[in-house]
Amino acid sequence: MIKTICVCGAGTMGSGIAQVAAQSGFSTILFDVNGEMLEKSRTNIQKNFHVQISRNKLSAVESSAILSSLIFTNNIKDCSADIIIEAIVEKLDAKVELFNHLAVTNNPETIFATNTSSLSITDIAGRVTYSTQVVGMHFFNPAPVMKLVEVVKGRQTSGEVVKEVYELAKQLGKTPVLCKDAPGFIVNRIARPYYLEALRLIELGVTDIETIDKVLEAAGFRMGPFKVMDMIGMDVNYNVSSIVWKALGEPDRLTTSPIQKAKLDAGELGRKTGKGFYDYSK
Ligand SMILES: NC(=O)c1ccc[n+]([C@@H]2O[C@H](COP(=O)([O-])OP(=O)(O)OC[C@H]3O[C@@H](n4cnc5c(N)ncnc54)[C@H](O)[C@@H]3O)[C@@H](O)[C@H]2O)c1
Asked: Cα of 179 to ligand 1 centre, how many Å?
């Protein structure tokens, strides 16, 4: 039975996942190599709790109890738990290195879940110590709000691990769906053309980003593609596009966009840097 959760990476996703875990009653550890990111995460979670208190969804007493059950750490030796949920940078080598490091301080029963958006679960599992324990647990942004979690079975993942992670997602108040390991899983595979076709229209000078966002919002999407890319982060979204494109044999229709690459090179990563397609600094 899962009682302790260690979330690795305190960025956009890890911070939200740790909030959900702690708020669902799990004793939770949030690890990041970067102390500033841990502080930023603590502030964000406190802010989110203040909003919930102001809406009478949480009491001040509950808020401080949850915060005290949540350990923020930059010491990897603290990362021992029933399940590791990693949400670090979207790079295969980094994720493999982290899991192998954590294999030493954990045990063969620990579940090694990855929040990867696009890397192959089978590839990660193939390079780590406890490969049958590796599973995809793909949350959506913002993690405290979005209900969907894709539970992804790699070739080596044991059926028991899939079952446990599926049940855990439900205990976290999420709606899990099962999925086999495939480039982009379900949502990111379907979403690639949504972002890329919008970027193509800008490359061709057909219209501007505000109009595209407005049109798609009028058509029923909660947010237009440029607002979503700014929320996801240009670095993450660009990486996911590149990985899915390569994994599918580099089809022309999914070629990454030079506009997005230019934003990435300029450090305009979206909300997290204060500027992306839109300006958030004011
Ligand atoms: N941003 C999204 O909308 C979104 C949605 C679903 C899944 N994801 C996936 O979640 C993961 C994280 O994405 P994000 O947007 O939160 O990234 P982010 O850039 O906001 O945060 C990543 C964090 O990981 C930390 N980090 C990097 N290497 C580390 C290491 N070796 N050990 C510990 N911490 C480390 C960084 O300091 C940073 O705080 C990626 O795999 C991404 O594909 C992202």
From this structure: 22
